[in-house]
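Kindly go through one protein, given below as sequence and tokens. The question is how this chain folds according to its tokens.

***
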Amino acid sequence: MAIAELPRPELRDLARGVIDDPTLSYRQRVQRLAGLAENALEMPDVSAACRQALEERVVCDMFEGNAPYRPRYLLPDYARALQRGSAYLELPPPADLHEALWFLASMYAQVPSITGYPVYLGDLDTVLAPYVEGWSVDEIVPVLRPFWRALDRMLPDAFVHTNLGPSDTPFARAVLRLERELLQVVPNLTLKVHPDLTPDDLLLDAVHTVFACAKPHFVNDPMMVGDLGDDYGVVSCYNSLKIGGGSHTMVRLDLSAVARRHRGPSERFFDDTLPRYVELTAELMEARIRHLVERARFFEHDWLVREGLLSLDRFSAMFGLYGLAEAVDALMARDGHPGRYGHDEAANALSYRITRAVAAQVAQRPLPHCEGFGGRALLHAQSGIDSDVGVTAGTRIPIGSEPGLYQHLRAVAPHHTLFASGVSDIVHFDETATRNPEAVVDVIRGAFAEGMRDVTFNLDSNDFIRITGYLVRKSDLARIDEGARHGSTFLGAGSEAEAHCTQRATKRVVAHERLAGAERRSDA
């Protein structure tokens, strides 16, 4: 039952449960109470078929709230703000690095998102380049350290994200050094990787940082630039959007649930069942976008828009899908063909046909106020939420059943070109990786040469677990009954309980192994 349909006494009971929960901090209580208030409102009008699909969670609104009043993700142009100053914040342009850092901290406190915290802190090595010209890593680190520590304390949410690269800079090196030193959850981190601009030595530094704290992600910069242009940022988990813009909403389609509802041979799945549910997903997206832009009128009154740090014409929306693995296996079984996604060529071929069919329909379906991507939604391989049970995130292979490293990457890579706003796979390494970091660099190079957009590594022996695209610490999960400073830890606990993220198949790495297409790059 949707919260909007709950009688008032049940809403009171839910609110009382939040207020009386001893594990929640004051800020966490306020955020959950705000969500209850929003969900007490009616959702935007949609057809009966769309409402039914939502109630059955075949189509899922990500529990964003019934009445959207802020975009899900927004990426302010922080460089522009630093250059011009802010009338709203009553701050002049900063004169040095110290002033620039606290200018940004003041901005972050005023940037909305679906989480209540900013999901994007800027591509900080680029944004802050004018303030560290001629500085060494040793000079940057002591100035940056208190700010970096403060980010984790002021913004306790693992979806807060910053980017580095693709070029090698002392600032990027300083961030990687601090990440290894401080071992913090916040901020999440992505390194943009370019085959010519990113030297192996920087990748090697980043790999050693992954060994310490499971950060950063690695993103295929040429592929992202080809889809979104030079001014893109990776936010939240691994969601790629335009700087100065963002995503109004994300609605996702459970492909496994669509497959379960299909009757007949798999061929008819592509003629009827799949297109019908893709359209119902788009219908809900359109209703939510119109509410945000035309009724809540976010873009008419927010200070970030007034000061030119956000622009409606750089926004789109994210069409998410998940449960591909279960959908493929169900359709294969219905047709009497053995085989599993990730392990069988016929199953993999069916998976590519499904994602290509969805991508083609999404590309043809206009949506209002989505000029940031040609009036269409961005396709996204949605990485799952804590309430998902028995369904695999995005286009990933089910946890614990992943094949060997190279078979794994080659099976999922053909999907990646379709997902302009993000698709990711997580590779779980054992301790052999720490003895062969150069081989991990080769894996990154080779994965991108195979056509992957994003790839993320996790080491089974450190304190960090990569849940979907965000991190939690095992030590924090062990104390979850006492509460958690990071609100995202509660989500991670739910995901670990249901999806068993620590049970990903562990990969071994040896120095001589290399993906086809991987080429070593000189440090120069």
